[in-house]
Amino acid sequence: xxxxxxxxxxxxxxxxxxxxxxxxxxxxxxxxxxxxxxxxxxxxxxxxxxxxxxxxxxxxxxxxxxxxxxxxxxxxxxxxxxxxxxxxxxxxxxxxxxxxxxxxxxxxxxxxxxxxxxxxxxxxxxxxxxxxxxxxxxxxxxxxxxxxxxxxxxxxxxxxxxxxxxxxxxxxxxxxxxxxxxxxxxxxxxxxxxxxxxxxxxxxxxxxxxxxxxxxxxxxxxxxxxxxxxxxxxxxxxxxxxxxxxxxxxxxxxxxxxxxxxxxxxxxxxxxxxxxxxxxxxxxxxxxxxxxxxxxxxxxxxxxxxxxxxxxxxxxxxxxxxxxxxxxxxxxxxxxxxxxxxxxxxxxxxxxxxxxxxxxxxxxxxxxxxxxxxxxxxxxxxxxxxxxxxxxxxxxxxxxxxxxxxxxxxxxxxxxxxxxxxxxxxxxxxxxxxxxxxxxxxxxxxxxxxxxxxxxxxxxxxxxxxxxxxxxxxxxxxxxxxxxx
Length: 485
Description:
The protein contains 13 helices and 21 strands. Helix 5 (142-151) crosses helix 6. By secondary structure, it is of the alpha/beta class. It folds into 2 domains: 32-61 and 322-454, Beta Barrel (Lyase, Ornithine Decarboxylase, Chain A, domain 1); 62-321, Alanine racemase (TIM Barrel, Alpha-Beta Barrel). 27% of the residues lie in helices and 23% in strands. It has helices at residues 46-53, 62-82, 102-107, 117-125, 142-151, 161-173, 212-220, 242-258, 286-304, 317-320, 364-368, 458-463, 466-471; strands spanning 32-33, 39-41, 44-45, 57-61, 87-92, 111-114, 133-135, 155-158, 178-185, 207-208, 225-231, 266-268, 310-313, 324-338, 348-355, 374-376, 385-391, 400-408, 416-420, 441-445, 448-453.
């Protein structure tokens, strides 16, 4: 009988030549080791940040965010200009949103994409004009729709037949004309995780291509709706342009067909551009993907003999993903040896490094088996590399922050670790599992830190506990978030 063997380290993971290196491939542009060997971001060391705000801590490099947003916007608008049209760029706020970053988006001349009433409220509170907001969602309530129409949002994306009547009736009650798009599922299977592929047939988003003409006719027939055009989103964290191109071609064919019924101002091609999460990744530049998409638009429009429409895009992760870093404090460490784990039959050891956060501040690893890159941040080390798994403090075996990476063998309790590329979806998907309070978010720039979202306390958790409040007369507990607050 053949001997079963398992390699603990995946093929893509190689022991680094320098465990102390900080690569801008995954880290913010300002990230570097200072003269003492400590990781510095935006002009502040991790020790300074941890001492002021505690850990876990989300850190957003403001200048890096602005630079990436500017570069992504330029890549998309330049790609559109190459084929004789324009591009409107929405920041997909589901990646990361708080009112403090909305002015950054506004100042850069971008629009903003929201998908719930809460995100809409945050965007409006942040001060961006309502006409530069687009509202998504597969199950928008009448209240959400009414709030959007009342505010004057620039577009609502229709996701089902029932929403046509719902939006039209609410717009009629307000005596308004609401601009809308129709989200279409093109049936293209993007090269990404199944949960991130959003254009295939068997999922909740969008209208099948064959059903779209009848629904567009229904939209056009209602005087309280203005049809802006079609919308697609093929998925998220996509490297290959092939899925974007194939889906866009199908959408252009439908666009050409619908032109017989009237003018269509624009075509929204969504977002989903992938980034580097680990050193082995090789995400293409947004400009490369954008040019492939717009080349397909131009070629299809020429083939069909139609005018190239104005375009719209919705990047989120590509802007904020690598601008964010999470800082953790190390608690306990275990060296776990697995017998007969190597190809040679010899035991292998994985170092389990437990930190003071976990799946409550980064659930992507558990949901998608996402991979991240981690470094010892509070000091440099000359110790040998040790295959490590960074885990959280939750009562769950799947509570993993970094599945596979190397840390110095001398990593110790109270060291600070930093995990790269946590700007997108980590704070957005944070939760209170095991009654753990969510961490704060700070922005850093030019040696100064700005608290964007304060960390929760146990008092915040008890504030919604009805029995506790009844027992204590509505009093709030004074318990703090963690030992460093």
